[in-house]
Amino acid sequence: MVEVILLERVEKLGQMGQVVKVRPGFARNYLLPQKKALRATKENLAYFEQQRAQLEAQNLSRRSDAEHVAEKLNGVAVVIIRQAGESGQLYGSVTARDVAAAITEAGFTVGRGQVVLDKAIKTLGLYKQRVVLHPEVAVSVTVNVAQSREEAEMQAKGVDPVRLAQQAAAREAVVAAEAETASAPEAGTPETEG
């Protein structure tokens, strides 16, 4: 384990200024290159204490900017058009990069690292996704994954186009089966001898 000083709040780890123990790989590959932490040496502790007021002021400024954007972005719905099978299963999946691109297209600058996907989206439908604008500011965005704009509008109104298509196919199958049964000669009727 390695000790680091957090330069900003890191979710599930700690607040700015805390000295925490993390695995060496996490520090080396994520926290240090992203400038989210410094190694906890005497020199770095002294440097942090010197710069603390400035770092907190910068954090406060970025947070207020993020809150301003969050007011506009919270609850926004974006549409992602994808091809899918009859059951609604996507050919591929929707990733954080796809969601970030759709939000950017809607007029907000968001990077894929800011979109929190718990798991990849693999079926058509509506999904609530978190977007982290700042370590202390997160919003919810609705992602509407559909095969066309018309389907996206139906899904937004609460109608499931995949279920409608399945029900229509089932009705057609029943009608076809009834028509086939009606046109077939009835079995079991005795033939008349002549």
Describe the structure.
This protein has 194 residues and is α+β, with helices and mostly antiparallel strands. The protein has 2 domains: 2-54, Ribosomal Protein L9, domain 1; 77-176, Ribosomal Protein L9, domain 2, CATH 3.10.430.100. The protein is 42% helix and 25% strand. It is built from 5 helices and 9 strands; from the N terminus they run ββαβαββαββββαα. The protein has a 4-stranded mixed β-sheet, sandwiched between helices. The chain has a 3-stranded antiparallel β-sheet with strand order 2-1-3. A two-stranded antiparallel ribbon has the order 5-7. The chain is elongated.
Overall geometry comes to elongated
The name of the CATH topology of the largest domain is Ribosomal Protein L9, domain 2
Structural class: alpha+beta
The residue-averaged pLDDT reads 83
Distance between the termini: 99 Å
- Tell me, what is the CATH class of the largest domain? Alpha Beta
Low-confidence stretches: none
Number of helices: 5
Whole-angstrom Rg? 28 Å
Q: Please, what is the CATH homologous superfamily of the largest domain?
A: Ribosomal protein L9, C-terminal domain
**Total count of strands:** 9
Order of SSEs? EEHEHEEHEEEEHH
CATH architecture of the largest domain: Roll
